[in-house]
Write a structure and sequence with these properties.
By secondary structure, the chain is α/β, with parallel strands linked by helices. It is 45% helix and 15% strand. It folds into 2 domains: 86 residues; 197 residues, Rossmann fold (3-Layer(aba) Sandwich). Helix 9 links the parallel strand 4 and strand 5.
Length: 319
């Protein structure tokens, strides 16, 4: 275990232990016991009030200990973030592995994406990898999702745009859908992270799954700046990232299998750019490489609005 990983473990143990250190409720019970006796025997002058005050001081001392532990945790987090940002700012990720999934995680993620996808607004999905579903099954990789899987959560978007570095691969992604639907999907090949060819200020949702997990912080910042220009006010960005507050995720970053980020680093970054936070989540999984999958849901300030009232009717299914 490296020094950074050991420090993360130390911090996480402090966080999990902190709630067990509070004596507030127990001491308060004892104060109440003595207070009832004091109330029943007000005329006695044998120092009971002093003992009540002593118990009150214990609560104050205990609260101060809790505050001091919070300060230690905060100092560790600041050290981790500052050290890691400097150490990994120019790193080259060696592997673009796939984020694992399972039925429960898929149900949760798809339901979250679906709630932001509707016919009144276009949607955009960034695609990193393309795999033939038969190849996935033959390779025993049923526990990984593909961009095709994620399209099902965004079928309501009208239209849906797919962007990536290879337009041929993008077209392969939608071949499982009827040709009528394929013609409705916008395919855009993006080079050098240049999104200027896309409609600006138009999208209701952008999905960026399993991409930012392998990007340096400056590249993540660039993506966020581009995404906020593409989203209309009130539009949502749904993205995965590598949360190095989790020990295994930090190990992957130090082995250059993923980027070094944390929920604090990401929150600071998106706040500076102008996003508003909806939620951040960490979901446990049993994959040997990733013990958790982490994602964020953020929005461009404002409220979604459009004059669009209906869409073309049709059924979308697999071939």
């Amino acid at each position: 275990m490296t020094a950074l990983q050991n420090l993360i473990k130390y911090k996480n143990e402090l966080i999990s232990t902190k709630s067990k250190l509070s004596l507030h409720d127990q001491i308060l019970d004892k104060i109440n016991l003595l207070s009832r006796i004091e109330e029943d025997y007000k005329n006695q002058t044998f120092g009971l009030l002093q003992q009540i005050e002593n118990f009150t001081k214990i609560i104050d001392i205990n609260n101060q200990i809790s505050n001091d532990i919070n300060s230690i945790i905060s100092d560790i987090e600041s050290y981790l973030d500052n050290t890691a940002i400097e150490q990994f700012k120019n790193c080259q990720i060696k592997s673009n592995s796939l984020l694992p999934t399972n039925p429960e995680l898929e149900l949760l993620i798809n339901s979250r994406i679906s709630r932001y996808s509707e016919f009144r607004y276009p949607g955009l999905q960034m695609c990193k990898y393309i795999f033939d579903e038969k190849w996935l099954q033959d390779a025993g990789l049923q526990t990984f999702s593909t961009p095709s899987d994620r399209i099902h959560s965004m079928l309501a978007c009208d239209p849906l745009y797919l962007v990536g570095e290879n337009s041929t691969a993008l077209r392969e992604t939608i071949k499982i859908f009827p040709e009528q639907y394929q013609r409705r999907v916008g395919i855009y090949e993006i080079k050098n992270q240049d999104f200027s060819i896309l409609p600006q200020n138009q999208f209701g949702i952008i999905l960026c799954w399993d991409i930012l997990n392998y990007c340096t912080l400056d590249k993540i910042e660039h993506y966020f700046k581009e995404f906020i220009k593409l989203l209309r006010p009130g539009g949502v960005l749904f993205f995965s990232y590598n949360n190095c507050d989790i020990e295994k995720s930090a190990e992957n970053a130090e082995n250059l299998l993923a980027s070094w980020t944390s929920v604090r680093i990401i929150k600071k970054l998106i706040s500076n750019i102008g996003f508003e936070i909806i939620s951040f989540s960490d979901y446990p999984c049993n994959d040997y490489l990733n013990t958790s999958v982490s994602w964020g849901e953020i929005k461009k300030p404002g409220e979604l609005s459009t004059v669009k009232r209906s869409q073309a009717q049709g059924l979308v299914g697999r071939k």
